[in-house]
Each structure stands twice: as structure tokens, then as C-alpha cells.
Amino acid sequence: MILIKKILQSSKSVKFGDWFVITLFCALIIISAKFLWSLPQGEYLEIYKNNKILATYSLNQEITKEINGTKGKTKIIINNGKVRFSSSPCPKKYCIHQGWINKANQTIVCIPNQISISIVGAKRGYDTINY
Amino acid sequence: MRLNSLLIYFLISFLFGCSDNKIHHDKDFIFGTLIDIKIYGESKIHAEKVSNEIFNEFHRLHKLLHPWEQSLITDINNAIAKNKSIPIDNDEVISILIHAQYLETQTQTLFNPSIGKLIKLWGFHSNDHKQETIPIQKVIQKLVSSNPSMQSIQIKKGVLKSNNKDVQIDLGGYAKGYALDQAKKILANNNIENALINIGGNILAFGKHGERDWVVGIQNPRKPNVLATITLKPGWAIGTSGDYQRYIIVNNQRYSHLISPKTGYPSNNTQSATVLIPPSKGSGVLSDVFSKPLFIASKENKIKMANLLNIKQFLIIMDNGSILISESLNKKINWEDDIDKKNITIF
After folding, report:
1. A52-58 and A62-68: which strand pairing?
2. Tell me, what CATH number does A71's domain have?
3. What is the pTM of this model?
4. Between chains, do B229 and A130 touch, taking CB under 8 Å as contact?
């Protein structure tokens, strides 16, 4: 609040560039908020090995899956709507550090073990219905 | 300050531009059913213009082909009933009727769009299907034995005559598919690359949903959800005949609008028949027409009929819930979890 007051008081000294930066950041905050809130929750998890789909699981369960990649076993935990890598034979463990994902279209890729997971679906996994 | 307002305005419009979905979605109610158009990746103005053009075309076809509201078809039917010939000053309708004649022969008369009298008798020439009685058997038999057929219709030099006055044309199993093909032309003429047209369940995939193909859910005939999803490659069309949209219930028995031209009774061995038709000029019509013979044919003849019509991708749900599916469709279909795989037979 004090900061805003100060800015308002000294508005004469606020130059065009300042306004530009302020507006830009406000807009950025609104854009990211809108974008993040509008992402639909996922319904299904797709597990890929070498870009080939290996399995599809419902996200609405508590289960640990072991997948055989090219280097060894990857463990993936599904926990009621979210999913993460819990162990992987890869050297840097980037996939594990990604942590949980839970939104549609979120993806984690483990390049060394050639395993990737992707959340699909939103509520409906289709564009239209044939009836 | 004026510059600042301008800047803010610019940023706000940029914001809306960003949040705008890439799909333009439009709906309308024509042919007594819901029309759903999705256009992907075009400007809002262009997409709106094109979907309006498509809706206008559908309204035109509705007025031209309607089986019981006044149309060129009802004019023809009235003339036929009076045993009169009628000049048709409309090449489009003439070519539709000739095509329908051909399809009737090709489907061994299981697709017969000249049984308007039977369809009316069963109460399906209305939008609400409130008929509470089934027709008298003798009347049905009389209509069946009058042997209505598109082949009774002759068109010479633009004049139509039927040598069977019990012929009443009802293009209910053709018009929606034809409309899909017309929509396809409009999309192409307007340089649209990606769209999805759904006319009361008859669907045409035009291009893709951006980077991925369009995905269609197939309605479960007895549950309020889909039974499977399927990817429709660019240009493919899908159509279903089902007993769960248009039907009457008399004494707890369901009578669907899919009436067998051979018995005069609604076909009751099937819940739904779905066909996928590969890209071609008339794929829309075929997706509409070819589901009918698969629905109406007896169980043992369904597969024969699919082979005869060269339908490589079909899915049939029988009255007991068992599923018949072609091998190539089975390879790409994604069943929902509640579908019992033991119920599925692959052909």
C-alpha cells in the first residue's frame, strides 16, 4: 500500500517507461492467472515408451506402476488425480524433480529411459459425439 | 496519459486474444436435430461467416427435402399419390433421387427411401413421436405388399412419374449425410482447413484439430455416456443408426424409427449400427445411408451386408448388448472401462 501511495504521490516523476513496465507486469499476472486457472483437470494418464503408447490409466486411483524403459525400471505413482515419477534409473533425475502433475496436457519426459507420461482428457476425451 | 490508455487498451485486447480458444463453436437446430460446427484455427469473423453459410445451406436443404413439411419432396409425393406426373425443375433433386435409386439397389433394398407411408403410419412423420398405438397389422401388410420402391420412379426430360402410387419419398436416411457433403464443399471453397461438422450424430472430420486428429465419442445406446472413442482421420465420416433417439414405446416395448422395408415393422434385433466411411466426394451420404442396412439386416446377414457394401469399419450393438466389430475398427477403437470385452466379437 505504501508503495502504491508513494507511486501515486510522485506520479509526476513516473515516466512513460515506468507505466509501460507496470502495465506489462499487471497484464502478465492476469494472463498467467487466467491461463493456469483455465487448465482443465485431467482424467487419464498415458504412459509412452519411445513415443509408443504403452498404457492408459485412470487418474482416479492410488496405485504405483513399474515400467520397463530402455535403461531399467521407472516407478510412477498415481494418486487420485495427480501423478509423478518416484524412481528412475536416469542419472540426473529431472523427471522425479518435476514432482506432481495434475492438469490435462501436462507431460513429463524422461529422455534417458525413454519413458514419458502425459495427462489427457479434461472431462471429455473427445471433440463431439456420434449418436 | 492518452498514450497510456492506448497502451492499456492494447494489452487488454492482447489478453483477450490470448484467452480466446482456437475453436469457433456454433450450434443450430435444423432437420429436427442439433447441428454442431467446430472450426479450428480461423479468425472469429471468418469462422462465423463460414458457419453461417453452412447453416444457410442446411436451411435450404431442409426446405427442399423435408419429408412432411411442404417441400419439393412433398410436392412430388402428392403428385405420385394422385398418379400424376410432375415436372422437376431442379437438377440437384433429380441427381439425389437417381443416387437414392442406385443405393437402394446396392443395399438390396434395405435402404429404401420410398416407404414414406410406412414411416408415417408408425408415427414418425412428426417431431415429437407421441403415437401411443402400433398400426394395425393388416394395414402394414397392405403397404408392404404394395411393394414401394425407388425403381418405380422414372425421370424423363425433367418430368417425374411413378408407376406405383404407394411410393412416398422420405429422404430421412440420406439428407443429413448429403448435408455433410455440402458442408464439405463450403469449407473447401472458403479455404477452411480444419473443422468438425456434426449433424444429429452424423459427423464429418474436415482436416484436424490442429496438431492432432479429431476424436469422436460413440454414444452408448443404453447409458448416458459414450461406449468408446475413436480418432477420425481427415476426410472420414461416421454415422450411426440407433433405436434410442427416435422411437415410440407402446406397452413397454420400444419401436424404433428404423423400419424394415421387407416386414413393415421396426427392426428390433439391434441397438445401434455405426459405420466409418473413408474420404471421398460422397462420404457424408454413405455414412448416413450405410448404417441403415447394417441396422435392419438380420443378425446373420449383417456381416454379409457389410462385406457387400465394402464397409471396412463397422460397429454393431445387438439387442442383448453384444458387440460386433470389424477387425480394422477394433484396432483403433478405445473402449470405455465399463465395456465387457467378453461381449465383443471381431469380424
Report:
1. unpaired
2. 2.60.320.10
3. 0.72
4. no
